[in-house]
Amino acid sequence: MLSEATNRVRLDLNAAREIYETRIKAIRSPLGVTTLGFGFLSALKTHDAPELVNRLRRLAQNAELDFAGVVTSERTTLCRIGPHSIPKEAVQAANPIANLALDRGVAISGTVVLSKEFLSAEDPELADRAAIRLLPTPRAAPRDEKQETSGMALMAAIPVFDGGDLLGALYGGVLLNRGQAIVDKVRDTVFQQEIYKGRSIGTATIFFNDLRISTNVLAPDGKRAIGTRVSKEVKEHVLDKGERWTDRAFVVSDWYITAYEPIEDIFGNRVGMLYVGVLEEKYVDIRRKALSILVLMTVAGMGLAVGLGYLLADKIMRPVHRLIAASQKVSEGNLSPEIGPISRDEIGVLQNTFKNMIVSLEERDRRRRAESDNRLLQSEKQASIGRLAAGVAHEINNPLTGVLTYTHMLLRRRDIGDDIRSDLETIAQSTERVRRIVKGLLDFSRQTKLDREPTEVNRLVDSTVSLIENQALVKGLSIKFNPGENLPVLTLDRNQVQSVLFNIIMNALDATEPGGKITISTGISLSARDGGKKGVEIAVADTGCGIAPEDLDKLFDPFFTTKEVGQGTGLGLAVSYGIVQRHGGTIRVQSEAGRGSTFTIWLPVDETPERHENTRS
Amino acid sequence: MKILVVDDEQIVLNSCKRVLEADGFEVFPVTSAQKALTTLEQEGFSLVLIDVKMPERDGMYLIEEVKKKWPDMPMIVMSGYDIPETIEEAAKIGAPIFIAKPFTPDELLAKVRQVIG
Predict the structure, then answer these.
(1) A119 touches A94 (CB < 8 A)
(2) Has residue A145 been placed in a domain?
(3) Tell me, what DSSP letter sits at residue A606?
């Protein structure tokens, strides 16, 4: 901002210089034209002073000159436009520019320092105008005199020839002291009368030495600061060294961005300075304003961002946060968290997906819980019954030994009647039943370790079927085995799995009327659970009475039996279930009352295939 | 032939005595492992019938003692707790013949004859 101001001030100084020079030309040209006039020449030749004065006055009026006159070739003033138009003084003050023009025989124009005497001779008013009292100025270089009485003027002098004879010279000029024309023209054209806080921002000054003789810089009292001086620093740079100066400078009472350059008179002496300056405050204020605008924009931007953020939070982040909170709740086990209203955009898709996920989670959770409840119940039953059985079996079996042996001893006697024998046989049978129940309890309660060995399922099923075949034939049932092909070898506790098979097939036998059919088949199947683990399925299907739907749930409960009293212990399927479970398998039942039932045992394939390879050979 | 029967339950002792005597064996019932060992010191037996679960010293202890002192003495283990673990343990310490309680006279006699011909 300030460097831009500095650049501008430099250009402004060039413009001011141009105006200054133009003013000099505006003096020189009319003078030059006047010397060419025939009337002027003849009046000069004849030293017709009144005629010359008339002409000079017209010229001065037209060219706005403060003074003008004619010097003879003897370097004495012939006439002038001032009150003493015909010089009467004994000793004339030297006319430096006219003399120079006469000496050189060429037109001279430029800045000229004029003595008080010269000015007084021209016009006492000019001498008064020129006299400027030096005002005390801070930072200025010390000066002894109290008052400046010389003047600085823009002048031109044109030598006049008649043929080859030098007749004299015409001179004229304007006094710069207290003049306003140039500096105000600079202010008005260059700065276009810009006003800042009641002050013109652009100022121009003409210095005579370091003294302001023509300026529109205002002193604190509001008057033009004529009589004040330039700072010592600037004086040294510009007047003494002849350099241009462009910088921040303290002018009279304010900081200005300033440019100074020296003014040389017609003899090449540095006699003054031309100055332009721009009130710094304006640029500082502009900078401040720009800065505050920047700050304002930043604040507004931030405000906007916060506002937008809030809107975004409202529209996007709130549902997302709700989803996050909902996920948190889900992870804490709450499967029906509040997720808020469903949006219509992509967030809505996310929300719906989340909802669906929760629903399926809930479904899975419910299924799992049901399953584990079931399993828990099953294992609790098993454990309590196991403890009971272990405690009771021993106690029951001892007295039972007495009952069984003595009953049989009695039955050995030949001296008993048939009625007594029949009674004793009833006792023996009942005792046998108790023995089976206790044995079943023991089997059920035992968490026997599995004695696994590689087993071909088809061979195991086949041997079990042959054990039962005769019984089936006796009962008038057909029993058929459809072995599946390419079954993997499983590692099973053969005896225990066989007892399961035996139990299930015997149940089928009991449930099926003569003429019925029992079909056993094996095959590879994937588990419905455990992510579709590979396994082998053994299905036992009968065409028997089927199972009532209300009994299906209780089928594997210990002591649950649909058989007639004395026919079943209610432990067979419970024990079977435990065995299959310990193998990592499952038992499924499908049944339709009156149409028959299918029990499906599923056993997983062992995950160490190399063992299978070995045992196959 | 003399058979020593060891069981803390009187009814089991009585049952065995009744069945075995009816078949011509001489039966000595005792109610503890300690008494069994004392009796064995005094008399020679063809067979010892041992119950597993008894208060104080149990059947397993008795089997080990008998095996130490009379290595060739035939033994039958009986138990109302008919589980494979019991049977295996007894077999491991030298008494591989097992009969589960309750039993019928025929079942008991079959086991006895299996051991002592």
Answers:
(1) no
(2) yes
(3) P
- Single out the residue in A233, A260, A282 at which a domain terminates: A282
**Which tokens go with B110?**
């079959």
Owning domain of residue A612: 449-616
CA-closest candidate to residue A605, choices A482, A484, A492, A495: A492
pLDDT for A359-370, tens place per residue? 888 887 777 777
Instruction: Give the domain CATH number at A598.
Output: 3.30.565.10
Q: Any idea what the CATH number is for the domain that residue B39 is in?
A: 3.40.50.2300
Q: Which of B82, B85, B87, B111 to mutate to test the interface with A (most CBs of A within 10 A)?
A: B82
Judging contacts by C-beta atoms under 8 Å, the chain B residues touching residue A396 are 80
Spell out the residues 6+ positions from residue A232 whose beta carbon is closer than 8 angstroms to its own: A139, A140, A141
Q: Please indicate, yes or no, if residue A321 is contained in any of the structural domains.
A: no
A137-167 pLDDT tens trace: 888 888 888 899 999 999 999 999 888 888 8
Amino acid at A505: I
Q: What are the per-10-residue average pLDDT scores of chain A (617 residues)?
A: 73 89 92 87 89 90 91 90 84 89 92 93 92 87 88 94 88 93 86 71 89 87 87 90 85 79 93 88 76 89 86 74 81 76 80 84 76 61 66 82 92 90 91 85 69 88 88 88 90 88 89 90 78 85 85 75 67 82 86 86 71 37
In a domain, A202, yes or no: yes
A431 and chain B in contact, CB less than 8 A: yes
CATH number, domain at A110? 3.30.450.220
pTM of the entire predicted model = 0.44
Q: Please name the member of A398, A408, A412 whose beta carbon is closest to the beta carbon of B12.
A: A398
Q: Distance between CA atoms of B115 and B76, rounded to whole angstroms? A: 8
CB contact under 8 A, B81 and A395: no
Taking CA atoms, what residue in B is nearest to A443? B83
Q: Is residue A432 part of a domain?
A: no
**Number of domains chain B contains:** 1
Q: Structural domain tally of chain A?
A: 2
Token pair 């004695």: residue: A451
